[in-house]
Amino acid sequence: VEFPAVLLNTASGEVEAEFHSYVQPQEHPLLSAFCTELTGIAQNQVEEGVPLHICLSQFLKWIQKIQKEKKILFISDIPNHSMSETKLCTFVTWTDWDLGVCLHYECKRKQLRKPDILNTWIDLKATYRLFYNRKPNGLKGALQDLGIAFVGREHSGLDDSRNTARLAWRMICDGCVLKVTKSFNK
């Protein structure tokens, strides 16, 4: 019901751009009380949202604009482009759930073509566990372990994205080299 992303500059720690859309549920259009309580998303917000295929199209347009403006390449783009003056980019998620399970199967089920750039990512939870040698108690717990307060509402997609970026930046500052942990690309 929500599709957020933030662009983190890993040289400065600044969030340089954000994308956010509510996605209209097509098969079960009414949100459950559990979903509303967990995410803070209201029924009218998803009713004013867009179907998933439109959201993915809008997201791709946003990504393509950023790629041109900031000279960014995704791993799936490398064989087709020159590397001069470009910066590599990939997605960072808290667990494999969003890209590896939820979006993957939703696109398959609806016979939507998932953009190739969403087939490769870094699972920050797994990376955190290996780098700090401890099991985090959720995104908020991982931030708290490092003395960072969670900003916003837990399970709000955009707030979770911003906080994941803050955690990734802290890990980079602590010496962690972020590497792809999952890829559906051949």
Layout of secondary structure:
Layout: E1 2-8, E2 15-22, H1 33-39, H2 43-47, H3 52-70, E3 72-74, E4 87-89, E5 91-93, H4 97-110, E6 120-123, H5 124-132, H6 138-145, H7 157-173, E7 182-183
Parallel strand pairs: 3-4, 5-6
Antiparallel strand pairs: 1-2, 6-7
Structure description:
GO terms for molecular function: 3'-5'-RNA exonuclease activity; nucleic acid binding. Keywords: Exonuclease, Hydrolase, Nuclease. Residues 1-177 form the Exonuclease domain. This is ERI1 exoribonuclease 2. The chain has a single domain (2-183), classed as Ribonuclease H-like superfamily/Ribonuclease H (Nucleotidyltransferase, domain 5), CATH 3.30.420.10. Helix 6 (138-145) runs parallel beside helix 7 (157-173). It is globular and about 45 Å long. The protein has a 3-stranded mixed beta sheet. Strands 1-2 form a two-stranded antiparallel ribbon. Strands 3-4 form a two-stranded parallel ribbon. The longest helix is centred in the N-terminal third of the chain and has 19 residues, at 52-70. Strand 1 and strand 2 form a beta hairpin. The chain has helices at residues 33-39, 43-47, 52-70, 97-110, 124-132, 138-145, 157-173, and strands at residues 2-8, 15-22, 72-74, 87-89, 91-93, 120-123, 182-183. It has 186 residues and is of the alpha/beta class. The protein is 42% helix and 16% strand.
